[in-house]
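== Protein entry: sequence and backbone fold ==
=== Local backbone shapes as whole numbers ===
==== Amino acids and backbone structure tokens ====
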Amino acid sequence: MTTDQSILFALLFVVFVLLIWGRWRYDLVAFMALLAGLVTGVVPSDLAFSGFGHPATAIIALVLVISRGLSNSGAIELLARYVISGTRKLQTHISVMSALAAGLSAIMNNVAALALLMPVDMQAAKKAKRSPALSLMPLSFASILGGMITLIGTPPNIIIAEFRNDALGAPFRMFDFAPVGIACAAVGVAYVALIGWRLIPSQRGKEDSARNCSTWRITLQN
């Protein structure tokens, strides 16, 4: 193993530890890792910041702008008002939220879709007097699954489309991912809604209910 390889593996290990620790923001950890790679020489100085000018980066930024526009318009909240209820059983609630998250993630960035639906899910959990820990994780998985359906659903799709354009001269189009993405999303959401949520420890939900009531109030108010 060369010196550069040893430095790179050590850097990756430190980044992994910091991400698990969770004390610092992920973007800050990533940028610090880039600077460390630049200082140690494992990242060439002329390529260190080239990623910020890549077309995929600009496209992802524009998708986030559009997602923010949908959020500010109130369209998502209007839709959620008709499909979310605190009187539903947990399985029914997870099924509805998962399907909604997957659908929204297909037409907007999946992270933005998750950010929009989290307060709605927490409000429904508060009305039903149950822990949001029982439904937030299924919501997260559903948003990831839905993001696979279209080009703009998740950043990796955009990146691989740009790579294909550079390599073959033609990128993936908007719905080229749909045949595989829809199948994976349908099976995945069905699993999450029917089986997956049952694997969450019930004790975790009880502890969160008792400990985080004040946190939910602050989050919902903001």
Residues 3-21 form the longest helix (19 residues). Confidence is low (pLDDT under 50) at residues 216-222.
